[in-house]
């Protein structure tokens, strides 16, 4: 199981909120189903969060909707304070709330 906490960073003069990532893979023998535990955890979190973002490629154009990405009220507030949502400062994609 891997958890990468999101956090604020400054990169090239821009304030960026990096996404929190929670991921895992099941054991090969399927005796331990960590993916089920992660999905349960995400369902618990979802009751207190917003879901759905639009991902936009700022270099090549194009966008996609990601309904499985959750965000907090605080993250939404930072977005409206001009903080950029990204997975990594070097990636081409930025994210914004699906429902403003």
What does the radius of gyration come to?
A: 15 Å
Count of distinct strands? 8
Characterize the main sheet.
3 strands, mixed
> Which stretches of 5+ consecutive residues score pLDDT under 50?
none
Mean pLDDT: 86
- Beta-strand share of residues: 35-45%
* Shape assignment: globular
Number of individual domains = 1
- Helix content estimate: 10-25%
> What is the number of helical segments per DSSP (H or I, 4+ residues)?
2
Q: Give helix and strand order, one letter per element, not per position.
A: EEEEHEEHEE
Strand order of the largest sheet: 2-3-7
Distance between the termini: 32 Å
Summing up helix and strand content along with how strands pair, one would put the structural category as alpha+beta
Summarize the helices and strands and which ones pair or pack:
Elements: E1 2-4, E2 8-11, E3 14-18, E4 21-23, H1 34-46, E5 50-57, E6 63-71, H2 73-80, E7 84-86, E8 93-97
Parallel strand pairs: 3-7
Antiparallel strand pairs: 1-4, 2-3, 5-6, 5-8
Question: How do you describe this structure in short?
Answer:
With 100 residues, the chain is of the alpha+beta class.
Descriptive report:
The protein is of the alpha+beta class and 100 residues long. The protein has one domain (2-97). Helix content is 21%, strand content 40%. It contains two helices and eight strands; from the N terminus they run E-E-E-E-H-E-E-H-E-E. A three-stranded mixed β-sheet has the order 2-3-7, covered by helices on one side. The protein has a three-stranded antiparallel β-sheet with strand order 6-5-8. A two-stranded antiparallel ribbon has the order 1-4. A hairpin with a 5-residue loop joins strand 5 (50-57) and strand 6 (63-71). The longest helix is centred in the middle third of the chain and has 13 residues, at 34-46.
């Amino acid at each position: 199981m891997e958890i990468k906490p999101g956090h604020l960073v400054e990169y090239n003069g821009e304030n960026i909120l990096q996404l929190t990532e929670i991921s895992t893979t099941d054991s090969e023998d399927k005796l331990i189903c960590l993916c089920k535990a992660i999905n349960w955890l995400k369902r618990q979190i979802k009751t207190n969060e917003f879901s759905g973002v639009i991902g936009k490629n700022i270099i090549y154009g194009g966008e996609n909707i990601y309904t499985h990405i959750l965000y907090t009220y605080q993250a939404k507030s930072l977005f409206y304070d001009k903080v950029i949502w990204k997975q990594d400062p070097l990636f081409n994609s930025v994210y914004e709330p699906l429902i403003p």
